[in-house]
Amino acid sequence: MNHGLLVGLAVPAGLLAILAIARLARVRPVFRPLVGPFALATGAVLGLLVFGGGRFPESGWLALVFLVPFLILLVRGIVIAFQALFRRRQGAAPPALLDSVVSVVAYAIGLGAIAHTWFGLELTPFLATSAVVGAVVGLALQDTLGNLFAGIALHTEAPFRVGDWVRVGDRDGRVDQVSWRAMRLQTWDGDTLTVPNNEVARHSILNYSLPRSPHSRVVTVGVNYHTPPNKVISVLASLLEQVPGTPPEPRPTIRMVGFHDFTIHYEVRYFFAAYDEYRRIEADIYRLIWYHFKRHGIEIPFPVRNVFLHQAEAPEAHKEAPATRLERALRQIDLFRPLSDEELRTAAARCRPLHYAAGERIIEEGAPGDSFFILDRGEVEVSKELGGVRRPLARLMEGQFFGEMALLTGEKRAATVTAATDVDLFTLDKPGFHDIIVGNPAIAVDISTILSERREALSQAEGDLTARFQPTSSRGELKERILDRIRGYFGL
Ligand code: CMP
User: Fold this and answer.
1) What is the mean pLDDT of residues 252-277?
2) pTM for this one?
3) Rounded to an integer, what is the distance from CA 311 to the centroid of its chain?
4) DSSP bridge pairs for 221
């Protein structure tokens, strides 16, 4: 083809190709690094066509003018292909460190090939001496190379990504960058911590951001021994619902984890979506614990030395003495109405406070028993197993009593009594009860009335599993019989 025509076609075609690649780089920015070397390479080809008559220069140095832009173009193309391949396999862009390694290796091979082909450089002896030089340099650069290879290993294994919160050894931080030599972390204080790669590789790495959100943490709180665990757990659960930044699912968990010198320890596991939020969330939890515990009268014990000082005075000073509370509770009970103040005090002295959590069985049907219970707070459910099915008989509330049947008749427990809520009780044993009845036989009459009603309800339920309780005409008789039995039992 005519040289003039060839130049006439090649120049606009070359310019068009440069424009096309510039346009492509604008749409797909990954191709941007190709634009410069492509323009240079095209310029070199056009220069060759226009000034060199289309023949490749004989001189090696002149050839470099053409070869170098092509080498740059080729290496950048290889890096782009490597990035695409890496992204496809790992799901994320390769770190800058790996890009650099790929380019250095590609340049080394390309320059070696050029040196061999155009400058007649024999590479074999060079490679042999380079082994010796390599060993010397390797020794000198032991640490640097160690860091480099550790960095490559870290990237290949990918135990973290840029932006992840990690713990390396005993240091926490957010990964800002991983370079040839080191990993750069941003600490909680906003400082930059640079850890050499080989040190990172030597330590175990805890990644707070993988595999996925939410992650959880634990706060432990110690509470005094007086507060029922269910109360503490329900107060903690309700305050956790109010902590901003915690996801609705999974819900926080609260566990009692141990009895310590002056405290019961509770472990609260809460969840959060972003690791850098956890300190704020934890501070909110502690802050809310103080307010909620204060409102619910739950004391957070002071350190041991203070506990003695404060517990001896402060809490008791504004609390009602247990004995007075018990006398007041006993006075609320119809059954004990006939008792004089003195008798009530004696009765109270024989009572023992008990606490049950919701769902716990207080009395087991069929078990022997000779204690009497008075409900101070909460509710219980009385049930009986009839025909293989547990059937509720009654729900007793504050001020009511139970357990009188076995105590007064010496029979086995007639029903099961379960705490329907958290329950505070007072219990009285047989000698204590005996003292009260002997002093006030009228109580025996009242008890026998209630007892006969309950007994009748029991036998009615036993007779008809589905029937509701209806008082019957035989109740008077039953009551008399029970009364006689009580009197005989207590020698009244
Ligand atoms: P006791 O048999 O000692 O233990 C179980 C208790 O359940 C029993 O005494 C009563 O106090 C109580 N109880 C049994 N039946 C009824 C009922 N129908 N209504 C209320 N309480 C009952």
Assistant:
1) 93
2) 0.55
3) 34
4) 266
